[in-house]
Each structure stands twice: as structure tokens, then as C-alpha cells.
Amino acid sequence: MAFESLIVLGLVATCCLIAPNDASLVFRARNRSMSAKPFKVLITHPEVPQSGIDLLKEHCELTQVLSLPPSRAELLEKIKGVDAVLWGGHSPLNAEALDAAGPQLKCISTMSAGIDYVDVAEMKRRKIPLGHSPTVLDAAVADLAVGLLIAAGRRFHEARRKIDSDNWESYHLNWLLGQDVRDSVVGFFGFGGIGQAIAKRLSGFDIDQVLYTTRRRIDQETEKELNAKKVDFDELLAKSDFVVIASPLTPATQGIFNATAFNKMKRTAVLVNIARGKIVNQNDLYDALKSNRIFAAGIDVMDPEPLPPTDKLLTLDNVVVLPHIGSATTRTRSDMSTIAAHNVLRGLAGEPMLSPAY
Ligand code: DGY
């Protein structure tokens, strides 16, 4: 079994076997003289997988937002007076929600890796612990990234359109030629768990080298294992045949993939974004694709989401667009719910969370 799978299994096993017992013990010890379910917890989405709900309901009285799409008004009403929240979905977690909850609120966990919809400064100012659910989605997102990289490099979208429009022109010998993954240089902007999981998968495609741009160098053993070298942003852009965005959205990364960046990339380069749409200036991406300044793009994230069906990006042949489904597998979403529930239980018990966001 791959090392990475062992880590994921280990994390889930830690959650399922060790953490519940820890949390239960802490709860029992602390609440001996209290009622069986001393804490109220809100689940902010009606479709949070049962795994997390089952864990929470052993110890807590649960309320849940039932509207779909979840209504902000229902959330703000039901959050009043709760001790903790399992925050499913990307509704803004901000002062408005925290004020509605009230001062007894002890902790929150999102069911996501990215927390760009959370007002982290406000949470910290109020000293409310925040958990999230990274790591367990690395494999699912990495699988999708490899799919996008190949789909964009090999022109899947354009090829399908040829069939739909009755333009099957295979009498051309050079029809729909794409980019080889074999012997390519793959550059990662951001090289954490997801980026490394992608690189590991791509090593099976006989790539030549991995480059990465991060603030801090990763450990040398992993660099060696993945044949990876840290370079600055300009070198990453200039040398990569495939550029994969796998970094968080922060003020420093917002819009960094703009016209200037695209002009430094190879004309044959393929851009993949499985991180956050706002890291890319989407107008500039449109221009770079339309003018063939870069070869193609495969994106699971965009700005805004949902992307309107009339968006000009969707008129292009050389972009494969998916509606933010990176972590959308049954097992992954269930694992994310499990991690979020353990974060909440630990936060309520005054213990460090399994996956603290800060
Ligand atoms: C995440 O967890 O951040 C994924 O993008 C899904 O929201």
C-alpha cells in the first residue's frame, strides 16, 4: 500500500479509534455531574455525511439547517445559543454568524480544507478555536488534478465538441495533437499534501522532473523521493510544461496568475487549478487561452462559483472546466465529516483539535 494511503488510513483510524475514546473519556470525566448531553451543536448543512453526525450525537444535542440550498436566515436563527458548530458548506463564517451565536460559543470546525470563507482574524480575536478537514481529501483532489492535466493536455473538451458538431476530421494526420506527459517538467505552485500526492501519481507517468514554488523548502527526503526541486516563481513558469496550482488562497497568492505570469510560461504549457479560483486572474486566463499564449487549462475552481453558464471562458475549446468537485467522492466526504466532528468534540472538551486551522 502506498505510503500516502497509509497516512490517510492512519489519520482516519486515529479519528475513529483513538480520538473518540479520548473525547469520550474527557467528556465523561468533565461532565460526570451534568446531564448526558450537555452541549448544543449546530450542523449548518442538511447533507453533512452521517459519519460525523453519528459521532456528535453520542455526546451532544444536535440541531441542523434543513433548507437546501442552506438558507442564511435559517443558519442565523438556529445558531443562537449553540456551544459549537460543524460548518458544512461555504457560507461566510464571519462576525454576523458569531454575533448571532452568542458569547457561549466554544468552537467551530469546517468540513473543508480551504478556509477562505472564514473571517479568521475575527475568530482569533474572539479566541474561538477553528478546525478544518485537510489531508483526508488529498487523494481525491490529486486524482482529479491528474485527470484535468491529461484532459487539458490531450484536448478532451475540444475533441468532444468535434463529435458534437459533426467535424470528425481524422483524415488529418496531425488532428487534435496534444502535449505529452512523458518526459515533461511539472511545476507546482504550492507543494503541500495535495501537491505531493499529485506528484506521486505523476511519477507513474514517467515525467522528467518536478519543480515547486513554496515559501519554505520541503524536507529533503520527500524532495528526493519525488525528484522535486524548489525554484522561484519565474523559473517555475519558464521551465514547466504543466503548471499545477495547489496553494491556499491568501492575500499573497490572490491574482498571482495574471497576464505577466502567463507571458512567462511556455506557449505549449498547460495550467491546472485545483486550489481556488481567485489565485488566477480569470480575464487574463481567458486572453492567454484565446490567443494561444498558453496551450490549455484544466480548472476545478473559478471565480465566481457558481460560474454563470454564459461566462466567456466556457466558449473556449482549450479549457476543461469542472464545477469544484475535487473532494467529491463518497468516502472522502464521509472522512471529512468524521474529522470535523472530532474537531468539534475535542474543542468542546477543551482539548487541541485533530486538525486545528490555526
Ligand atoms: C476544500 O475542502 O477546501 C475543497 O476545496 C472543497 O471545498
TrEMBL record:
<feature type="domain" description="D-isomer specific 2-hydroxyacid dehydrogenase NAD-binding">
    <location>
        <begin position="146"/>
        <end position="326"/>
    </location>
</feature>
<dbReference type="GO" id="GO:0005829">
    <property type="term" value="C:cytosol"/>
</dbReference>
<comment type="similarity">
    <text>Belongs to the D-isomer specific 2-hydroxyacid dehydrogenase family.</text>
</comment>
<keyword id="KW-0732">Signal</keyword>
<dbReference type="GO" id="GO:0051287">
    <property type="term" value="F:NAD binding"/>
</dbReference>
<feature type="signal peptide">
    <location>
        <begin position="1"/>
        <end position="23"/>
    </location>
</feature>
<dbReference type="Pfam" id="PF02826">
    <property type="entry name" value="2-Hacid_dh_C"/>
</dbReference>
<keyword id="KW-0560">Oxidoreductase</keyword>
<dbReference type="InterPro" id="IPR036291">
    <property type="entry name" value="NAD(P)-bd_dom_sf"/>
</dbReference>
<dbReference type="Pfam" id="PF00389">
    <property type="entry name" value="2-Hacid_dh"/>
</dbReference>
<dbReference type="InterPro" id="IPR006140">
    <property type="entry name" value="D-isomer_DH_NAD-bd"/>
</dbReference>
<dbReference type="InterPro" id="IPR006139">
    <property type="entry name" value="D-isomer_2_OHA_DH_cat_dom"/>
</dbReference>
<dbReference type="InterPro" id="IPR050223">
    <property type="entry name" value="D-isomer_2-hydroxyacid_DH"/>
</dbReference>
<dbReference type="GO" id="GO:0008465">
    <property type="term" value="F:hydroxypyruvate reductase (NADH) activity"/>
</dbReference>
<protein>
    <recommendedName>
        <fullName>Glyoxylate reductase/hydroxypyruvate reductase</fullName>
    </recommendedName>
</protein>
<dbReference type="InterPro" id="IPR029753">
    <property type="entry name" value="D-isomer_DH_CS"/>
</dbReference>
<feature type="domain" description="D-isomer specific 2-hydroxyacid dehydrogenase catalytic">
    <location>
        <begin position="41"/>
        <end position="355"/>
    </location>
</feature>
<dbReference type="GO" id="GO:0030267">
    <property type="term" value="F:glyoxylate reductase (NADPH) activity"/>
</dbReference>
